Queue: 4 jobs
Job 1
Amino acid sequence: MYLKSIEVYGFKSFANKITFEFQHGITGIVGPNGSGKSNVADAVRWVLGEQSAKQLRGAKMEDVIFSGTESRKPLGSAYVAITLDNSDHCLPIAYDEVTVARRVYRSGESEYSINGTSCRLKDITNLFLDTGIGKEGYSIIGQGQIDKILSGKPEERRELFDEAAGIVKYKKNKATSEKALESERQNLYRVNDILKELESQLEPLLKQSEKAKQYLSCKEQQKELDLSLFLLEMKRLKEEKEQFLEKRKINEEEIKGVRCKYEEIKKEYEQLEQSLEENYKKSEEIQQTIQSTELKREKMEGEIKVLKEQINTVKNDELHLEENTLRIEQQLE
């Protein structure tokens, strides 16, 4: 197993996305002071689950996110991914290549993934147990850490040797099992205490149980009475409903009869109204005929009067003619 590549984006001084490829034969990263060599090591430690900002040479975890410069704005998150060659299956996972990634936001929220699948920090820690790789493994040794190991307590050096020997996983499993066993033991003690307490309360509980039985019996009788009352009420309401429906049926029939009578009267009224309107029209026609006849009569009377005057005039003319004729005859004689 060996480290194939490191992908860094927004982590500390790496504002741009950078990928470090490690081919066979590469044993180190060199560069001038301030070029970011230590930040690469911090990135590896961080992606493996380091939770201490102090170990990453910062005051708080937010410090690992690119904080910006005069010419660039700060970024909102930091991302690191390492890819390991696992063709020898040193890691207990069925992949020849393993990519572990971590992302952190300024809100403090973190995301972990193994080969693109979201996971927990615990999953990453368990993956690297007994491999020497991890935030506390011997594969990452910072400045001054060797002196710290040599001058440290025997227990601290023992932890490093246990990691190298590959027994840390078993020790952790043992500690977890012992902790679970102790928890079960304490639970057993508590169960025994509870049993003793319950035994002392058994007699009062029996009395309470008897009272509870009586209460339940009364409650059952009450339920039966309530049910009987409910059924009687339902029967009464049903009878009232039937009576109401019967009355409504009678009323509907009466309304139907009244409605038919109304329709008949309405029809008769409409016929009378139509007849009245026809008679009114006839009356108007007769009135108009009378008026027309009256006008004709008046006209004829006027004409008769004129004719009479003309007749009188003619008669007068005849009389004058006769007189003139008689006078002329007398003169002739």
Note: The first helix runs from residue 37 to 47.
Job 2
Amino acid sequence: MSHNLMQQNTIENHYRALKVIIGVVILIAIGTTGTFIAGKTSDNFTIFTITSWLVFSAVIIGIVFILLRFFESKVWMKWIMVMALMILVMSCRVISPVIETVSMMYIVVIMSLLYFDIRLTLFTCALCIVSDWILLQFMPFLKPATNALVIRYFTFIFAAVAAGIGSIATHRLMLLAETREKAAQEAGAKLQNEATIIEKNAAALSDTTSRILEVTRANQESFRQIDSSIEEIAATASTQATETENTSRTIHEMMEALNNIGSNISTMSQLAARFAEIVKAGRNSMDLQITAVQKTSQTNQATTQVVEHLNDQSMEISKIVSTISQIADQTGLLALNAAIEAARAGEAGRGFAVVAEEVRKLADQAAEATGLINKIISDVLENTQETVSKIHELNQAFQEQAEAVEQSSELFNEIEEHALVIEGSVNEISTMIEEMIASGEQVDMSIQHISTGSQQLAASSQEISAIAAEQSKAMQTMVDDIKALQDLAAELSRQAADMNVAK
């Protein structure tokens, strides 16, 4: 509202008073004209008298209307309105000099009650008494008997007292209404401010979950690559086991056929070189895997901190919403008290009762909205707590994966040592062909060890691949949870925006 309640009511009463003045003029004109047509007026009362009075009344009404157009918010306008009606009533009594016209002065007193100002009401009553006394001095034939005159003035005084009491009570009621209205506006502004804060926090929550979702998807893709690398390692280990078995058979054939020993040694040398390359590639892959696991673990720890921070923010939001709910309850109580006061005021408080009912409805809507926000915040807290639990499970899986990778790294170290043994054995065979038969059994035993290591490497790679697959599933679950959290943040932002729009 652009004005406070008292000022707005005063301005509206100006126009109500103007309507009263116009209505009084119309009724007087109809009454006097009817009396004239019926032939019950004096000989001095003519059409010209009626016309002159109507022109005079129109001028007074025009002046009042112009003043209202330019000075409607001025305090002195209510005094002008009362005096304008008094002038019209007194002029009517002058042109229609009968005792009964004195009752029209009560209309002026009643109109003064529109402004709920005891000073104006007492002034109006005093003005009626003084104006009547002056009129009786100039028109003594209107003067009633002494007892009737005393009763008339006593009635004016009694009306002044009653009107004054009514004005005081109504004025206090209007002041109370203004105070309650200001309190309701302040509560509404605070509610809107809290809704804006919730909307901003929800937007920040949505941004955070978007970033978490991007990082999680990147981690998910990294796990897919790790799984693919592990599968390649397993395939290489299987190939290596097959090759070592072939080498073992070659050793047996070499011992049986010395004539083909040269070609077999060359083949074994190539296989040893190939084996060294495979071991080197496998070790490089394991190094990459270790680095990726470390980065993923660090990212997961950062994710845990972000989600825990998100949980803390959600709890803070819940506290803020609880405060808003309390404010809404208090506003509802204030509206109920205002409705009770309006009911006590009767007809004078009917308009304020409507305002109190609207305030109560706004309080109920605010309470309903805060209840919905509380539910959403509860869902957010539940999802964030579930996410934290799953992240802790994910950390445990990362720890197990890191241990498996360390074991795989140790296996690669052992394989590398075996590869060096193979290379040394091949060199010895190349330079000491005569001792080949004697050392054949030893070479065969070394090949068997290599085959065993290859099988262990293949088994470990399969275990790591299974762990990576489980990790990928866990990451997918976390992606789904983060999406759900993001949807809840969007819903929270929408609800806060709806609260601002409702405000």
Note: Residues 186-320+379-502 form one domain.
Job 3
Amino acid sequence: MVNINKDKLERIQKVLPKSDFQNLDEFVNHAVELLLFAEENKDKFNQLVRS
């Protein structure tokens, strides 16, 4: 189980209806994939962010 603080959870719930994700689990799973990509490919990720 992952704990998400109340403020972040409220922010997620606010944007969720406008997002491509059907529910909180899909949103969090996608966020984890992005974070893993960033950590595993720091140089590539930094280039993407700076572009």
Note: The helical segments are 6-15, 24-40, 42-50.
Job 4
Amino acid sequence: MNELISRRDDISLQDMMTITTAAKKAEEEEDVTMRVMLLQLIDTAASAFNLAFLTVMEAATTS
């Protein structure tokens, strides 16, 4: 009987570790997603600035 209880406790601990590991992995994936989105936002902002700068410079040279 004690073996069954011990085995059940071991399975519960394994389940808890699996859930904890899955939660950590999901959190890490969210961090990676956030970094990628931030880099894309920075890239978009830089591209918009460059386009505006080139437009102003082109307008200034044609005037």
Note: Helices lie at 2-62.
